[in-house]
Amino acid sequence: MRRWMTDVGPPVLALVLATARVAVAPVLPADRPPDTLAYTLVTAMAAALLLRRRWPALTLAAVGALFIAYHVLRYPGGAPAVPVWIALYAVAVAPSRRPGLAVAGVLIFLDAQSRMTVSGVGPLDATLDGSTGIFVAALLLGEVVRGRRARLALVEAEQQHQLTRERIRIARELHDVTAHTLAVVAVQAGVAAELQRDDPDGASRALQSVRQASRDAMAELRAAVGVLRDGSRPDGPAPPAPTLDRLPHLVDGTGAVLTSEGTPRPLPRAVEATAYRIVQEAVANAVRHSGARRIEVRLGYLPDGLSLTVTDDGHGITGPPGNGLHGMTERARGLGGWLHATPRDERGFEVRGWLPG
User: Fold this and answer.
1) Which of 96, 222, 261, 348 is the most buried (most CB within 10 A)?
2) Cα-Cα-Cα-Cα dihedral of 274, 277, 283, 288, to 10°?
3) Reduced 3-state DSSP string for 260-311
4) pTM of the model
5) Over the stretch 124-160, which tens digit does the pLDDT of each residue have?
6) 95-to-56, 83, 91, 143 alpha-carbon distances in Å
7) What gap in Å lies between CA 355 and CA 308, rounded to an integer?
């Protein structure tokens, strides 16, 4: 309904106003009184406006030709100019404006030329200012509206881009948290099953690790799903971004070995969070897919950043790279770093990367 009103409303309004203006226009001695042909020309001008969205340049040409014909037939004044104003506005707001602006230039020139011929005045005479000024004003109004629409479209596109990036980030978080939690549960559940008779205390500690990993994962999943669903966050403080201080707890849950080289120092939060997620995903892949018996995580504190290496002695990852490997690579590149994941020459798999810091 709204689209129909915006399509049909302006032509109907133009017809009503132009007809009223023609009816009350003063008839000078040299003018031809309005008759059926005059009102037919006005009606045709208004009807042509129905095509202004699809063919704005053609619409302006048709309206302009009818407008000039009205004056050539010596009907009074510029009474039927309302359809011309709307056609000029439509040309200015159209996506492709060059043909329409060319037609507008020709129309304004012909209108001014015909007025000069009929009135016997020069191009700078004040009697020409009204008509020409309104024509130019209609074009400028269309330009202003078109610029505003372009700015709004740009803002909307940027919002959609930011939303897409946020959803991709949340998808990575969900993948990483889920993969790591499943890896911890698998390892610790296996340990508990082996120790439940001979070492009940060890089995209990393994199950406690499973419980803690599940709680941590649920907190992060609730926060991520809340943002993904409706932009909200759960009550209470949001889970802090993971840092390198949490790596010992991460590797303990999966049986990996953590070593570091260089002097540890605080790094930017984004770097620490990215490094943690990369290690988390690499260790989870080694536990779930490679059948590794030994997993090593090495951090290197370098003058220009942080190097990280995750190796295992499993059978490697078969098949094409999955979302996890793609996600690790994108995380590293997003900070200006790099990451490579390749099979080792002797046995197993290796993930190497560097992050600036």
Assistant:
1) 348
2) -140
3) EECCCCCCCHHHHHHHHHHHHHHHHHHHHHHCCCCEEEEEEEECCEEEEEEE
4) 0.52
5) 555 555 667 788 888 888 888 888 888 888 888 888 8
6) 10, 20, 9, 11
7) 8
Token couple for 87: 């056609």
Please write the tens of the pLDDT for every residue from 216-245: 666 666 666 665 555 555 554 455 667 888
Range of the structural domain that residue 267 is part of: 243-357
* C-alpha–C-alpha distance, residues 64 and 273, integer Å: 65
Query: Which comes out higher in pLDDT, residue 202 or 346?
Result: 346
| Torsion angle of C-alpha atoms 29, 33, 37, 40, degrees rounded to 10 | 120
Q: Which of 64, 98, 124 marks a domain boundary? A: 124
Pairing of strands 305-312, 257-261: unpaired
Q: Residue 219: inside a domain, yes or no?
A: no
Q: Is residue 322 part of a domain?
A: yes
CA-based torsion, 263, 267, 272, 275: positive or negative: negative
How many domains does the chain contain in total? 2
Tokens describing residue 170: 């949340």
Amino acid, res. 176: D
d(CA 323, CA 168): 11
Phi, psi of 92, deg, nearest 5: -70, -30
Q: For the chain, how far is it from start to end, CA to CA, in angstroms?
A: 58
Residue 196 has pLDDT above 90, yes or no: no
User: Pick from 77, 92, 124: which residue ends a domain?
Assistant: 124
